[in-house]
Design goal:
This is ABC transporter ATP-binding protein. Belongs to the ABC transporter superfamily. It comes from Agromyces salentinus. The chain starts with a strand and ends with a strand. It is built from 9 helices and 12 strands. The protein has a single domain, classed as Rossmann fold, CATH 3.40.50.300. It has 261 residues and is an alpha/beta fold. The strands form 3 sheets. A 6-stranded mixed beta sheet has the order 6-7-8-3-9-10, with helices on both faces. The chain has a 4-stranded antiparallel beta sheet with strand order 2-1-4-5, with helices on one face. It binds adenosine-5'-triphosphate and magnesium ion.
Length: 261
């Protein structure tokens, strides 16, 4: 039975008098994989931060893994949430080894300190690395990896704790075509597995939506333009409305492309 992993009721976020999210109603079930699209500044990262229990709404109510934010201990909640973003990647020390980068996720820290790692954690980290195409990289320094390799290490890190909710903020940003396709393929394989958690991925490009993703949320100016199953929420019309220019969406074999019409 699917459970509800995210439930937003009339969620608004106001910063410096500006409305960043405005009355967002949204829910995500444990067997759904969502893509979030929208122009720069639409509020996508803010939405993910609430989903990550890293920020509370200014108004409205958000429940994460059936715990109401503001009424729960977020430090107990966060280990159940995998989160990969550029902001988090910046916190990873460049001289950290790849294996430690992934291992430290088990302790919700970046930068190895004095923790005693269990043998079982090390084995799991090795397995997660190989699942993300990183066998042989364990002893490399994070800062010596290519952008594509770094992105995959971040995702490996975010799934290390076997989370119930995986949040990815622009995981394919800045990747070349080959690295992007490799990552989208790995994400598609991961999303297709029944054992994988609910996923919410923010991206700027419909080309980056992996096969097996089920739902889309389109945001513009802090509000929802469309939300629901991919076939209904991701169309030429909804993209046109969200981005404010005529856009034509095409689909082929489970992958998407979009361009100005
Ligand atoms: N702490 C803050 N104080 C004031 N404004 C903020 C704050 N955080 C975010 N904003 C503003 O809120 C808006 C939404 O930001 P957010 O990062 O959620 O957008 P986004 O959709 O992720 O954009 P992008 O595609 O560029 O990553 C932006 O205009 C941003 O400048
Ligand atoms: Mg963002």
């Amino acid at each position: 039975m699917a459970s509800t992993v995210l439930q937003f009721r009339d969620v608004s976020v106001v910063r410096d008098g500006n409305s960043i999210l405005d009355g967002v109603n949204w829910s995500v079930a444990s067997d759904e994989r969502w893509v979030v699209l929208g122009p720069n500044g639409a509020g996508k990262t803010t939405l993910l931060q609430i989903a990550a229990a890293a920020m509370h709404p200014t108004k409205g109510e958000a429940s994460v893994l059936e715990e109401k934010l503001g009424k729960t201990d977020v430090f107990e909640l966060r280990p159940m949430i995998g989160f990969a973003s550029t902001a988090m990647a910046r916190k990873i020390p460049r001289n950290e080894t790849v294996i430690d980068t992934v291992l430290t996720a088990a302790y919700s820290v970046t930068g190895r300190w004095n923790e005693e790692y269990e043998e079982i954690d090390t084995r799991r980290a090795q397995r997660v690395l190989s699942e993300w195409g990183l066998e042989g990289f364990a002893d490399r320094r994070f800062g010596s990896l290519s952008d594509g390799e770094q992105k995959r290490v971040q995702i490996a890190r975010s799934v290390m704790t076997d989370p119930e909710l995986l949040l990815l903020d622009e995981p394919a940003a800045s990747l070349d075509l080959g690295a992007r396709e490799e990552l989208v393929g790995l994400l598609g394989g991961y999303a297709a597995s029944a054992a994988s958690p609910a996923i919410v991925m923010v991206t700027h490009h419909v080309e980056e939506i992996p096969k097996g993703f089920t739902h889309a949320l389109l945001l513009a100016k802090g509000g929802i333009v469309a939300a629901g199953p991919l076939a209904e929420a991701l169309t030429s019309e909804t993209l046109t409305e969200a981005f404010g220019i005529p856009i034509e969406l095409t689909e082929s074999n489970g992958r998407f492309a979009a361009r100005a019409n």
